[in-house]
Amino acid sequence: GMGAGSSLAQNDVKIGFIVKKPEQAWFINEQDAASALGEQKGFEVVRLSGEDGQQVLSAIDNLNSQGAQGFVICPPDVRLGPAIANRAQQYGMKVVTVDDQFLGPDGEPMAEVPHLGMSGYKIGRQVGDAIAKEMKARGWEPQSVAALRISNNELPTAKERTDGATDALLDAGFVSDNIFDAPQQNTDTSSAFAAASPIFSKNGRFEHWVIYALNEESVLGGVRASEQYGLAPDQVIGIGINGSGAAFAEFSRQKPTGFYGTVAVSSTMHGRQSADNLYTWITEDKQPPANTETTGTLMTRDNWEQVREDLGL
Amino acid sequence: MSEAYLRVDGITVEFPGVRALDGVSFAARAGEVHALMGENGAGKSTLLKVLSGVNRVTGGQLWIDGEPTVFDNAREALRRGISIIYQELTLSPNLSVAENLLLGQLPVKRGFLDRRRLRERAMSILEELGEGDIHPSTKVRELSIGQQQMIEIGRALLRDARIIAFDEPTSSLSVQEIRHLKRIVSRLREEGRVVLYVTHRMEEVFEMCDAVTVFRDGRHIHTHETLHGLDHDTLVSEMVGREIEDVYGYRPRPHGDVLMRLEAIEGRGVKAPVSLEVHRGEVFGLFGLVGAGRSELMRLVCGAERAAGGQVLFDGATCRFGSVQAAIRAGIAMCPEDRKSQGIFPVASVSDNLNISCRRFFRRWGGFRDPQRETANTEDYIRQLRIKTPGPKTPIANLSGGNQQKVILARWLAEKIDLFVMDEPTRGIDVGARRDIYSLLYELAERGKGVLVISSDLAEVSSICDRIGVMRDGELIDIVSRDQATPERLLGLALPA
Amino acid sequence: MTDKVVNSTAIPVQGRRGLPKPLRTLLDTSGLIAVFILLFIGLSVLVPDFLTGRNIVGLLLSVTLIGTIATTMMMVLALGEVDLSVASIVAFAGVVAAIVTSTSGSVAIGVLVGIAAGTAVGAFNGFVVARFGINSLIATLAAMEFVRGLAYITSGGDAVMITVPGFFELGSASFLGLTLPVWTMIGCFVVFGVVLNMTAFGRNTLATGGNAEAASLAGVNVRRLKITVFALQGLVAGIAGVLLTSRMGLGDPNTSQGLELAVISACVLGGVSLSGGVASITGVLVGVLIMGCVQNAMGLLNVPTFYQYLVRGAILLLAVMFDRWKQSRRAGSG
Amino acid sequence: MTDKVVNSTAIPVQGRRGLPKPLRTLLDTSGLIAVFILLFIGLSVLVPDFLTGRNIVGLLLSVTLIGTIATTMMMVLALGEVDLSVASIVAFAGVVAAIVTSTSGSVAIGVLVGIAAGTAVGAFNGFVVARFGINSLIATLAAMEFVRGLAYITSGGDAVMITVPGFFELGSASFLGLTLPVWTMIGCFVVFGVVLNMTAFGRNTLATGGNAEAASLAGVNVRRLKITVFALQGLVAGIAGVLLTSRMGLGDPNTSQGLELAVISACVLGGVSLSGGVASITGVLVGVLIMGCVQNAMGLLNVPTFYQYLVRGAILLLAVMFDRWKQSRRAGSG
Ligand SMILES: Nc1ncnc2c1ncn2[C@@H]1O[C@H](COP(=O)(O)OP(=O)(O)OP(=O)(O)O)[C@@H](O)[C@H]1O
Ligand SMILES: Nc1ncnc2c1ncn2[C@@H]1O[C@H](COP(=O)(O)OP(=O)(O)OP(=O)(O)O)[C@@H](O)[C@H]1O
Ligand SMILES: [Mg+2]
Ligand SMILES: [Mg+2]
């Protein structure tokens, strides 16, 4: 394998940044931030995609061919951890994970691989708490409120998020019978819309609705379906996750909509910090902390521009 | 006499590995029916496709009405008043008869299809074609091949073209349809059009045509400006480059035991139960008009379709074949009538087309095929049947129509079977090759096999068969032995009562 | 299970007797329409809330994207070709419309440029297929990749926000209780139904799909025809994309992945032949509606996600098998 | 690093001059092979690290899934049919193998059951297509949904971990520097090359694809042939799925979405006709390799994600266009 350590000249450092969904704004931001840091500190960042296990392994082979010393990765499946770590070790590359943490064969997080990210479950809870708080502020009775949970159980991370939000809502006294699933086939707006429409048709007796999902686009689809069904903006609280263009588009509309807010997470910070951790590890042989947890910030119509600037989105 | 309206001057057409036309020149006048003759692969169809802008020339010049002309595509040729009835059907199977007739010039009123005019024009042309009982809204795929051929002719007539060319139009037409065609051709002559007429049937040339041009191997051999004084044998020898006295060359032979006996077979297309016997050493003919049910009957026998009743006794044993494969294994095989839809695998090579069934005899190493022996087999038949092809590996679609037919025939001649069922075997085949095929059939019979030939060619069926079954409207009307089988008698039996 | 079997034999027999004659003939002639009618009656009876005005409006809205594009896909398939790039065109046209509207400040310009972008892609596909004789699957697969890339690049990978409020009204403008996207879909069905059946263009398309060589020998300008059909496909996909953007309030470069397969299968379910030459607008309509109804009913019935896959697969297969069975019975008895 | 670049330019140029005659003829006759060779030389020269042993091994590994399945997809396409369910079969077979291995504790049983599951799906597809005459696009689209659903249901929606260590060795067992998946791919190319060209079965497949009616009249048992070909497709997809699972260390029900289009386009790029009757194993090999090389080189060159879409689309289109151009030039000059 490649020799590692401080003997390397700084401008020889090359790291990979492998993400599971290279087309998504979130991961683009992460990679952008890492590249920016690289330019600033003088190392090269190779941006790669690994949409499934097969692609990840090819990406690692590819990095090895290019002589990279390590990589940051958000794996397409956390259970690929052992396989990825194995391959990296074979090539003598250092690995840190971002966003999603590897799971070991025992189903527990792999502590030996440094991780930086937010727990999907916790971010979901943040959504649930924010919804509960706004419900209370609007003075809604829990019995009269229904929840539209746009789910995507095929994606474990999506499930974690919606589970977190569900649990938080239930803890806040939400009636569990009032939670309705709308399984979407994709993670975009129109599939969420299609999934949500029949749920509203079926549960016309509810006056108030809360909407949550794995991301902003999906929540937006639900909000559009609620408008289509004839619900007014003040009858709906939709809260998304991420802080991307979809949310900004919604907030910059003239009139408020049912899309109340979103839990923004700083992809820029994630990208920058994880790349920096890896770089320090390679150049100074200093292993980063095993697990750095980040949290999100609630972004609403009133504060979105400020939060956006703070988080550097 | 008037000036030539169409002049072909030194036209050369080349395909990879083949020079299909080699400096061909001739001229045709308005009001003349000009026959084009020649062996299979002589270049007749290629010449017509030059006229219609499908084939590009590599040399020579086309003159129409005194003007040098080059066509880049079929549309330009159509616009210039040239209309061709191609050798292979060019219909769109799922469109209606009316739409197919007027394809390329569908009537439009205010931007929309004018269905009324479409129907009217279609009905009037169908009437003229003698196919008045076809409804214009029938889907073309539901018609018989002969009817489809008439639709092609109708389409060409509707163009009102100055030059109209027929490429073997009668090969799949019934007796009545041929009569109508003859009437149509003489009307075209009277209207002063140029009619080019490709055929392999001598009698049609002498009956319908005013002049004849003979090709061989892509070269122009001779143009007879008039048919007066021209005799049959001269024409044949110009075509095939050798003397042929009697095309049919019938050879009497003794007949053996009963090879196949049909007992009260019925099924789709066969309305009344049919019983008949074919002996070893016999050439048995089935005659009838198109749609008489001959093909359907043999499909029931050869496992292509299930019979509704009755039984087949083959070689003494009762059998009912569930599949074509079973029939072949038992010793019966059928060469289908429509080579384009039922015969050829267009993109596959000549060798693959020929060996599809018989390659099981050339296996080696426990199941692998033996390309060398397959090729050798193919080359054998290329020689025997004078198949004109650049080689065994050429895609069959590149062969001329008649040569494709020979390959399909060879597919079955190469099979080790006892009863050969040949449905219209000589459709589109030239005189010389026909003679070769007939003598192959006799040879099979002499070796103790049975041969059953379905044919719509009266002369053929009455000249080569030992006994002839006549079918009409799904029924076997009579079986006539050779010495009583005059064409008049056969036709009388076949025509509707 | 046993119940269901008994039921499904019983209903049509009973129901058929009381049906008016034309409907009975319809049921007998077109297997797929029968499938749809049975399905619709079944869902109305068995699924609570299915047959409510609101749900039907929602159902219609949820099939607008597939339905609108299926009308021109029908033309493309009738031609014997296929277009895999529609989903990318939807995304691209939407993103372009969003950006142009925001920068120019004019909804009209934005919408036109968006639709023009879609049409251009379609025309380019047609050109490549017709001029160079490239297999349309490969040509449009290339376009699918390329145009999706363009959508990402123009949008920077993130959803594009729209600052001009008038743009949203497009997607929600409503007339007789139905919104513009639904009307557009209905319009497309009418227009392309007429085009297919009532114009020389439509008949030439079918003729070309049935036998391209024959059509060209008969004097049809096959090349121009192909380019036009593909351009129409691009135009309609562009319109659908712009409407989607306006309806959702954002131009999302990621949208509608996999739409092409859904559209093609709705068409094929509706009896359009992949080998060209056979198409029917009612068939396509029914194909789209069957797929939409099944999806909608599964939502109403709370079918668990994973089982939805099973149901979709099974319904698709059963619908075609029933259709085949009806056809063969007709052929056998006729 | 500079060393390497010089090296890799030198090799091909030297090599080219000395090309033996047959290879030069090959270049002239087969457009696509020429495309590939030019591409390969170009990439070796221009892309640093491309022509290194490691990278080539990695490249081969990255195309194993597509390559393996493309061999049987070629047979299916040669038959004039299509199979969209391969990606679902890969996922399903992988999940089944993972679960059975874990519960039975035996790698052999797990692997066999996984492969059997794939074969069963394939045979079912073939049965539906051959027995009921259902359009294979719809039949396998239904299977694609259904089987993906089965994969989710058997796995509970989550990737299945494998507890028996012997299972991993399957995917990483190596011989002459190449791992089992690569050898499997090579094996499939050899086997199906032989099947296609050297057996009656292969020729009958092509014949049936060219003209099914004629084949059946020529004594080919078309129904059995179709079932067999689809079953083979299922078998090979099953094997690929099991190997993928072993390589990844988990049975993922979500894996390989969209694989079917990649496989089909590799085949079509390799000159396999979608209308059946035309197929060549070298064509498919070259098609797979072109796509793999382009993807690999883009990775090495750090092409930004969005531009990768453009490049993939453009290369696909250019490769087919070049092939067409060569063909027409040959036809014209011949
Ligand atoms: N598209 C093509 N590609 C290659 N060779 C061709 C092509 N079309 C015709 N040929 C060759 O050109 C020659 C002349 O063919 P053509 O079809 O003109 O013969 P023909 O006189 O019409 O014969 P037939 O009586 O059998 O119809 C044949 O040798 C044939 O193999
Ligand atoms: N696929 C089919 N579907 C329905 N009817 C058919 C079909 N094929 C043939 N028929 C009908 O069966 C009858 C017999 O047709 P068949 O083709 O056997 O006649 P034939 O005597 O062989 O005539 P020829 O071969 O000269 O056309 C005709 O009435 C025909 O219309
Ligand atoms: Mg000819
Ligand atoms: Mg017949």
TrEMBL record, chain B:
| Organism domain of life | Bacteria
Which NCBIfam families has this protein been placed in? Answer: PRK11288.1 (NF008442)
**Coiled coil region boundaries:** none
The record, for CDD domains, names:
ABC_Carb_Monos_I, ABC_Carb_Monos_II
Specify the protein name.
L-arabinose ABC transporter ATP-binding protein AraG
Q: What Gene Ontology molecular-function terms does this entry list?
A: ATP binding
Q: Which UniProt keywords apply?
A: ATP-binding, Cell inner membrane, Cell membrane, Membrane, Nucleotide-binding, Repeat, Sugar transport, Translocase, Transport
The UniProt record lists the ABC transporter domain at: 6-242, 242-493
The protein's matches in PANTHER family, at most eight in alphabetical order, are given as: ARABINOSE IMPORT ATP-BINDING PROTEIN ARAG, CARBOHYDRATE TRANSPORT ATP-BINDING PROTEIN MG119-RELATED
From TrEMBL, chains C, D:
Keyword Membrane carried by entry:
yes
Xref: NCBIfam families: PRK11285.1
Oxidoreductase as UniProt keyword: no
Localization, UniProt:
Cell inner membrane
Superkingdom: Bacteria
Chief location of this protein within or outside the cell: membrane
Organism name: Salinicola rhizosphaerae
The taxonomic lineage of its organism, from the top, reads: Bacteria, Pseudomonadati, Pseudomonadota, Gammaproteobacteria, Oceanospirillales
Membrane topology value: Multi-pass membrane protein
* Residue ranges crossing the lipid bilayer per the database entry: 26-47, 59-77, 84-101, 107-134, 146-168, 174-196, 227-249, 261-294, 306-325
Q: Which family does it belong to?
A: Belongs to the binding-protein-dependent transport system permease family. AraH/RbsC subfamily.
- InterPro entries tied to this protein: ABC_transp_permease
- Alphabetized Pfam families for the sequence: BPD_transp_2
> Which controlled-vocabulary keywords does the entry list?
Cell membrane, Membrane, Transmembrane, Transmembrane helix
Q: What is this protein called?
A: L-arabinose ABC transporter permease AraH
